[in-house]
Amino acid sequence: MSKPSNQKVSELVQQIEKRHRRLNRKRLVNQLLIPLCIVLLGFAVFTWLEQEAYFSSTAKTVSLLALVIGGAAMAFWKNRVGTTLSLSEFYSSVADGIQKPALKHALDLSLKSRDRHLKLYQSAINKNLESVSWEEIKPKINRQVKKLPAAKHFRRLLAAAGAVAMLLLISAFARPDAFMRTAHFWNNFQKPNPYSFTVTPGNTTIEQGGSFQPSITFEGSSPEELLLGLKTEVENNFRFRPLQQSESGTFSTNPIQLSSNASYFIKMGEFTSKQYSARVQLRPRFDCSFVEVFPGVYRSRFQPGCLSLFPG
């Protein structure tokens, strides 16, 4: 039993409108996928570059902003040059593609005409729908919708987003440290120091007016340039002086006399040691001392002797 013409037209219109809404949603998703692909691709590439480069936080922030702005500009441009199909343009394009002008005429009469409820228009609609079977044309319409630009762009962008996401995942596992440094783009990171060394005396305390002699001993290779950075508590900037090799693998400066607390570190080309402190203290001194001894019951065995004190 065939369906009434009104019901057939209503179902046909609903199916066409459903596919039109779906196409418009894909077009909106396209506007999001474009900047997303650009940002994720840039993030993945930046991760591989960060492995060796150790970019500054400023460079990473500016680069990320450039990616976001570039992606947004590309999405805006695609939106301007792209075309949004109205419902009538949509079903006209689909009907022309599947070579069913009767479908187009029936929908024109049903959707555009103010007098579509008149018997004359109903007869014209029924006449056009005689050669239209939804079950027959449904796969043709679906294939034709997939050929429309918005649908093709959606599939391409979806595939691109999947490929970029896979690249980003590979980057995260292959370069985890660089990935984390890129993700924390607001922080600065330093390259790990490739040299194995020991700084002597490290944190130390000396007598006021005394001197100390910083030195560094390397296990293995050593840098070509070595500088001692020194700053007393009354200075704002570090002063640098070269270190000289005193023996195999050991470099030191001449003794340095201090009258106030100081901080120092060793600069090895682009790398540095941590900062150490040299505290200056005024040690107590004795002008004279008195000792009174009270022997116990064993006093008969007590023999006079001498008492020794450390110098100072």
Question: What do these coordinates show?
Answer:
The protein contains eight helices and twelve strands. The protein has 312 residues and is α+β, with helices and mostly antiparallel strands. Strand 5 (227-232) and strand 6 (239-242) form a beta hairpin. The chain has helices at residues 5-53, 57-81, 87-97, 101-111, 119-129, 134-146, 149-174, 176-183; strands spanning 197-200, 204-207, 211-212, 215-218, 227-232, 239-242, 244-247, 250-252, 256-257, 262-268, 271-272, 276-281. Helix content is 49%, strand content 15%.
**Which regions contain 5 or more consecutive residues with pLDDT less than 50?**
none
Biggest sheet descriptor? 6 strands, mixed
- Strand and helix order: HHHHHHHHEEEEEEEEEEEE
Number of helices: 8
| Overall radius of gyration | 42 Å
**How much strand?**
15-25%
The tally of beta strands, per DSSP, is: 12
Structural class: alpha+beta
User: How far apart, in Å, are the first and last alpha carbons?
Assistant: 121 Å
Question: Helical amount among residues, as a percent range?
Answer: 40-55%
Shape: rod-shaped
Average pLDDT rating? 78
